[in-house]
Design a protein that fits this description.
Blueprint: H1 3-9, H2 11-24, H3 52-63, E1 67-72, H4 80-88, H5 90-99, E2 106-109, E3 114-118, E4 123-133, E5 136-147, E6 151-166, E7 169-180, H6 183-218, H7 225-231, H8 236-245, H9 247-264
Antiparallel strand pairs: 1-7, 2-3, 3-4, 4-5, 5-6, 6-7
Length: 265
């Protein structure tokens, strides 16, 4: 059956699948509205700083994105350094989210700047942090989404995440430039997003909601996060990134170690 027949028979499900595909490459990941559109995003600096493959992919997204969306994530009542620590360790955030039933993502760190992720709903991808500033992250992602109607759709995205501290809250703003490889899917997404853009925005905001939930759990005095972190099997460098932003967790880990030593005697 052709795609046209599927669209006529199941418009609601096809719409959701299309918009899920359009935002799938952003699931792992994180106000860029003032960024000017040109041959290369000036916020990244010189294109020679990146590999030819990454530079070509970023330029393709930047010049002719299939979709461009900006969403404001839920504010998180945490210090900026705490929120940023969870943005920079998405595998820790994903594990904590699964423990707290906030999400079903699985993320694996490849190195300090690259991650492989699976959202458990048909989306898989690899993300790379291209630029890291105190209140901004710029992330390049490539991924696929597999669904029952459209099969597997490939896409890439450039995501700009800005973090603003207002009082005791962090307000995140995410702007995404998405490029869908399949021409038919890209054309349909452009048509449908005008009417169903809220679905795409909800998907984009989902990662920010999870990050906020985990970060707020981490700063609860008796929430149990530090004990969970001490027991979770994580590489030492990744655990240290969180502990550096949460000194109370260093004390909790030391106490757990002391308790374990006492129990062994």
């Amino acid at each position: 059956m052709g795609r046209g027949g599927l669209f006529k028979r199941e418009p609601r499900h096809l719409t959701q699948e299309l918009l899920a595909a359009a935002t799938a490459v952003l699931a792992f990941a994180t106000d860029a509205g003032s960024v000017p559109i040109g041959p290369w995003p000036s916020v990244l600096g010189s294109r020679e700083a990146f590999s030819p493959e990454v530079s070509a992919a970023v330029e393709r997204i930047w010049i002719k994105p299939t979709l461009r969306r900006t969403v404001n994530g839920p504010p998180a009542r945490v210090p900026l350094e705490v929120y940023a620590a969870f943005v920079d360790t998405p595998e820790v955030t994903a594990a904590a989210a699964r423990f707290r039933n906030l999400g079903s993502y699985h993320v694996q760190a490849i190195d300090d700047d690259r991650y492989r992720g699976d959202d458990g709903g048909g989306a898989r991808g690899v993300s790379q942090v291209l630029r890291r500033e105190r209140q901004r992250r710029i992330i390049f992602s490539e991924g696929t989404h597999t669904g029952p109607f459209l099969g597997t759709i490939s896409g890439s995205a450039l995501t700009v995440l800005d973090l603003e501290q207002h009082g005791d809250r962090v307000n995140p703003t995410l702007t995404a430039y998405v490029h869908i490889e399949d021409r038919v899917a890209a054309a349909l997404a452009q048509v449908l997003v005008a009417s169903f853009g809220f679905l795409a925005d909800r998907k984009l905001a989902e990662g920010l909601r999870v990050t906020a939930g985990v970060a707020e759990w981490a700063v609860e005095p008796s929430g149990g996060f530090c004990e969970w972190l001490a027991r979770e099997p994580l590489p030492a460098a990744r655990r240290h990134r969180i502990v550096a932003a949460l000194p109370s967790c260093a004390r909790a880990r030391a106490q757990l170690g002391a308790d374990a030593s006492a129990g062994a005697r």
